[in-house]
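Support request from a user on the community tier.

User writes: "When I paste my structure tokens into the form, the page sometimes reloads and wipes my input. The last time it worked, I copied everything first. Here is what I submitted, just in case something in the input itself triggers the reload:"
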């Protein structure tokens, strides 16, 4: 079903399988003048157009609706100039010819469908329509039977196909010459498996782009993955521009993380009927002469950095960044680390409320085989790769991750895992274990803890661990370092650690720290005394000066600034 707008007859694709309320909301927002529908569709009242002008380069070619942060879809208006430039650039980069057979897999409501259609038609290539259901297990037969030469696949679908090919020990069909993967970050492990199956015969590209910048903006030609395990997104297409900007809107140096911004002829008009959101996302270009046709930049909300060789590397969403116990955490980095576990096929990581007024990091895992890897093994794997604050405290296991119609992970529908590992709680065997079980329950705010239950699997974290050690010190008179909770995270293991310390005559509670009396003159620390003596001996050496640049924002009070410097000098 297609709705046709005015202003040069831009088209608006509607999915007949989408929920009726969503279709109604889109039609109400877009107000198309004509409706092209297949048989069996419900009746819809569409107003008649009074007239239609010819389309120009700056008129909208199509409108696609994407999910909005408010829960209401928002329409992106893409002009003919952007679509035409994209089609030419893609046709050149893909090397399309009239002899190619290109699969049209994406729904018309997904922008990649335009990338499958228009560049192919521009070069006279054949477009082969995929069946409604294209399971990964039989996908090879489809490619082979239709003699397809070019595939443009979502990353999640491609990973499933790679796994199916690997299990069957089968390479991709000989007709295939080009594979383009995108929509979600590409797994380095899946890319290695694909390269082993396909070899150099199949050219492989990793694509990055947004609907607001006309589909694909950059491509990376598959090669050995750089150190760090992330697959780059490559370099801009012809007519596109990629910039990494810091919080002040200045270009970030090579290797420094910032927000990825897109420029060039591919930028959309903006969002239909949403001028405030358009102004927020489409901002003035700080260097308009550096981009073809670009006096605006699209803020993508993606974190990225430019690599020394010139490629760009994507690091996740800025708006998915979470702050837990004062630590800023990018879930995408945790997902990449967890996906490197040999028993993990797919994973998603996000922040969820812990039910006690706090937030905890949760991981959802799709096992590689029939066996679920123990949560303790996954945690140990992550502890070897990430800081403690970035290690999830809860793990849920799913047969598959829920997906949106566009093929991306639907994080809103991920079920919250239950606490613990599902095993019956082991009873305490000694008075110390029984006491520690009570401390576990008090600190975590739960009941039914067993002597073998992992503090972190139950939802504990480093900050809660400090409270736990305080309770242990009060109850048992033993001073334990924080790392001991990570080494012995169960009541039984920590009870054994306490027994070992007592047997060795260690761990006694240290006397309390009391403040020193302060006289009229400031008291110096040992480090300050050393610097003071050296300065008096050497005389005026600038060795200990530490220059720093500080950016002040807001209204400046000269009097307060002067008083601040005066106090520093006086001290």
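"...and here is what came back when it finally went through:"
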């Amino acid at each position: 079903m297609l709705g046709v707008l005015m202003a040069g007859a831009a088209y608006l694709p509607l999915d007949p399988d989408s929920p009726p309320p969503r279709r109604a909301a889109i039609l109400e927002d877009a107000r198309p003048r004509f409706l092209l529908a297949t048989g069996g569709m419900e009746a819809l009242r569409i107003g008649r157009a009074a007239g239609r002008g010819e389309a120009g380069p700056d008129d909208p070619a199509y409108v696609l609706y994407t999910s909005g942060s408010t829960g209401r879809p928002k329409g992106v208006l893409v002009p003919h100039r952007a679509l035409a430039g994209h089609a030419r650039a893609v046709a050149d980069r893909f090397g399309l010819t009239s002899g190619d057979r290109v699969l049209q897999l994406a729904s018309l409501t997904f922008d990649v469908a335009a990338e499958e259609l228009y560049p192919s038609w521009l070069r006279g290539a054949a477009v082969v329509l995929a069946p409604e259901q294209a399971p990964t297990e039989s996908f090879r037969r489809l490619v082979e039977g239709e003699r397809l030469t070019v595939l443009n696949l979502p990353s999640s679908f491609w990973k499933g196909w790679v796994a199916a090919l690997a299990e069957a020990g089968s390479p991709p069909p000989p007709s295939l010459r080009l594979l383009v993967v995108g929509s979600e970050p590409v797994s380095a492990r899946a890319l290695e498996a694909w390269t082993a199956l396909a070899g150099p015969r199949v050219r492989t590209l990793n694509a990055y782009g947004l609907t607001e910048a006309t589909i694909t903006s950059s491509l990376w030609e598959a090669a050995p993955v750089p150190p760090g395990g992330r697959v780059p997104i490559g370099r801009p297409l012809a007519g596109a521009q990629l910039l990494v900007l810091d919080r002040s809107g200045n270009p970030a140096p090579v290797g420094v993380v910032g927000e990825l911004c897109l420029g060039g002829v591919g930028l959309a008009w903006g969002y239909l009927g949403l001028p405030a959101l358009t102004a927020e996302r489409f901002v003035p270009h700080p260097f308009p002469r550096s981009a073809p046709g670009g006096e605006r930049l699209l803020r993508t909300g993606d974190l990225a950095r430019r690599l020394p060789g010139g490629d760009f590397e994507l690091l996740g969403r800025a708006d998915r960044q979470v702050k837990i116990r004062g630590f800023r955490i990018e879930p995408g980095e945790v997902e990449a680390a967890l996906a490197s576990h040999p028993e993990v096929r797919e994973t998603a990581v996000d922040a969820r409320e812990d039910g006690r007024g706090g937030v905890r990091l949760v991981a959802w895992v799709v096992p590689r085989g029939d066996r679920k890897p123990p949560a303790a093994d996954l945690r140990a794997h992550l502890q070897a790769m990430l800081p403690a604050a970035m290690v999830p405290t809860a793990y849920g296991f799913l047969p598959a991750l829920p997906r949106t119609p566009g093929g991306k992970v639907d994080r809103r529908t991920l079920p919250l895992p239950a606490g613990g590992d599902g095993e019956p709680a082991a009873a305490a065997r000694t008075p110390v274990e029984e006491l520690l079980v009570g401390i576990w329950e008090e600190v975590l705010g739960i009941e039914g803890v067993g002597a073998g239950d992992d503090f972190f699997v139950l939802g504990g974290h480093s900050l809660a661990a400090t409270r736990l050690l305080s309770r242990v010190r009060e109850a048992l008179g033993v001073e334990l370092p924080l790392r001991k909770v990570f080494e012995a995270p169960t009541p039984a293991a920590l009870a054994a650690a306490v027994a070992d310390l007592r047997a060795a005559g260690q761990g006694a509670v240290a006397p309390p720290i009391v403040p020193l009396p302060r006289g009229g003159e400031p008291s110096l620390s040992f480090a300050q005394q050393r610097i003071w003596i050296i300065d008096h001996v050497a005389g005026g050496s600038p060795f200990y000066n530490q220059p720093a640049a500080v950016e002040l924002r807001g209204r400046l009070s000269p009097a307060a600034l002067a008083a601040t410097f005066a106090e520093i000098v006086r001290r």
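Agent notes: The reload is a front-end session timeout and is unrelated to the input. The longest strand covers residues 296-306. Residues 77 and 311 are 29 Å apart (CA to CA). Escalated to web team.
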